[in-house]
Amino acid sequence: MGSLYNKNRVFGSSSTHSSPTCTRTHQIGALALIFTTFFLTRLLDQSFNSTTFQYKSQNDAVSQDFYKGWPQRGYGTHLSLKIYVYDENEIEGLRQLMYGRDAKISVDMCVKGQWGTQVKIHKLLLQSRFRTWKKEEADLFFVPTYVKCVRMSGGLTDKEINQTYVKVLSQMPYFRLSGGRDHIFVFPSGAGAHLFKSWATYLNRSIILTPEGDRTDKRDTSAFNTWKDLIIPGNVDDGMTTQGARFVEPLPLSKRKHLANFLGRAQGKIGRLQLINLSKQFPDKLESPELKFSGPDKLGRKDYFQHLGNAKFCLAPRGESSWTLRFYESFFVECVPVILSDQVELPFQNVVDYTQISIKWPSTRIGRELLEYLESIPDKEIEGMIARGREVRCLWVYSPDSEPCSAFSGILWELQRKVRQFHQSTETFWLHNGSVVNRNLMEFNKWKPPMPLP
User: Fold this and answer.
1) Where does the record place Polar residues bias (predicted)?
2) Maximum alpha-carbon separation in the chain
3) Where exactly are the structural domains of the chain?
């Protein structure tokens, strides 16, 4: 689109009619008026632009320089997406990836726990105003699978997961059309896309949503690609994210028993073992109880969050992988998260300045030095970090896209940047009239599944 510019023209008059003489004083005054008008206009424009798209919290006002909303960062001024969601009965094999071979895995089972994002994102897309029922007009395609839950519940083996994925993908003409570029998959655990053993062959161009940005500690190749994939927040218990009464209400800093805490299993990880040993040396400063996740001594959800909120700082070391749900949970009990995971990736880094709401400390320097550093931070500064964290924690909540600030809305903004108007693949070709064909020069609308994949 071209821009139209209005040019001011100064017309000199050759008339000899008597008129006021334009003196140098007049000229200087006119220039001063022009410059004053220009700067006032610019000042008003900047003031308007800085507030138009800014998220407004119901909490006390704090400086929001650490949070720059999506429209201010080159994402466009509004969301404009059309996402097609595959139906579970549309493709043979898709139900097995959602409910297991015998269809005994329930949605209620899979929506709980740290992997619940695979269900929540699917449900929210089904209700979303950005959903389309027409494949031909879709910008993106969402493939619903609950494979982490299905695998953990014994619904499918690793081999069955791999075979079923290949079977499902082979029946998707639009996946073939783009080489998978416009198809979205959720892998909500530390294993990421590695749950699908052949991901590198079939999903190497697709958009992967995962809380895990690094998996090279156990794999030769990371399944996360910063160009095409998205880091998403973990699934915090609904009892802490819903508006109104929560499981646990934050304690004033003066009433918190500990300086810091670590609530988690050791899992044989060096950093976690170091924290447990450190808590034994300084039990009055660092709490790290032995947690039971099963049996009669299992820590209940409410008890867990009560422990978590009884410290000023919540330590979040890496476990089996670099991400930890504890980072997100800490914002809802209002302790400052301290990341002890060097390779961690965080969501929405284009709009959130994490240095203002959290601390990242080298995992190689876990020890007394860490506690001394945390102890040196004044309560006033801790309160400031907590207040800023309160402003953005809505980004960790999976609520409908009608909410101006939510994990789902954030994901949609990020997905909008992934949309490509042109989806080239090695198996699609086009002719002079714009028709898309395969290697046999058959038009796309005549392709018949199942089709072989690369």
Assistant:
1) 11-21
2) 105
3) 83-234+419-425, 238-396
Residue 343 DSSP SS3: coil
The answer to whether the beta carbons of residues 336 and 250 sit under 8 Å apart is: no
- The C-alpha atoms of residue 304 and residue 293 are separated, in whole angstroms, by 10
Pairwise CA distance, residues 326 & 315, whole Å: 8
Q: Which letter does DSSP use for residue 329 in this model?
A: H
Tokens 């023209």 -> residue = 9
Tens digits of residue pLDDT in 185-232: 999 988 889 899 999 999 999 999 999 876 554 556 778 888 899 999
3-state secondary structure of 290: coil
Residue with the two structure tokens 């018949």? 448
Q: pLDDT confidence of 9, banded at 50, 70, 90?
A: very low
CB 264 within 8 A of CB 291: yes
167: number of Cβ within 10 Å = 16
- Beta-carbon contacts of 44 under 8 Å, excluding residues fewer than 6 positions away, are none
Domain 238-396 coded CATH 3.40.50.2000: yes
- The helix, strand and coil proportions of the chain, stated in percent and rounded to the nearest 5, come to 35, 10, 55
Q: Answer for the pair 367, 278: CB distance below 8 angstroms, yes or no.
A: yes
Coil, strand or helix: which one is 190?
coil
Model pLDDT for residues 254-281, shown as the tens digit of each residue: 999 999 999 888 888 898 999 999 999 9
Quick one: DSSP state of residue 10?
A: P
DSSP-derived letter for residue 355 is: G
pTM score, whole prediction = 0.82
pLDDT band at residue 23, thresholds of 50, 70 and 90? low
Q: Token digits for 296?
A: 């009669």
H or E, element range at 184:
strand 183-186
DSSP string, 50-99: HHHT----SS-----TTB--GGGGTS-SS----EEE--TTTSTTHHHHHH
Q: DSSP assignment, residue 12?
A: P
Q: Count CB atoms within 10 A of the CB of residue 229.
A: 26
Q: Tell whether the model's pLDDT for residue 67 goes beyond 60.
A: yes
CB 215 within 8 A of CB 224: yes
Q: Is the pLDDT assigned to residue 68 strictly greater than 90?
A: no
Residues 163, 96: Cα–Cα separation, whole Å: 11
CA distance 140 to 217: 32
Please tell me the predicted confidence (pLDDT) of residue 454.
55
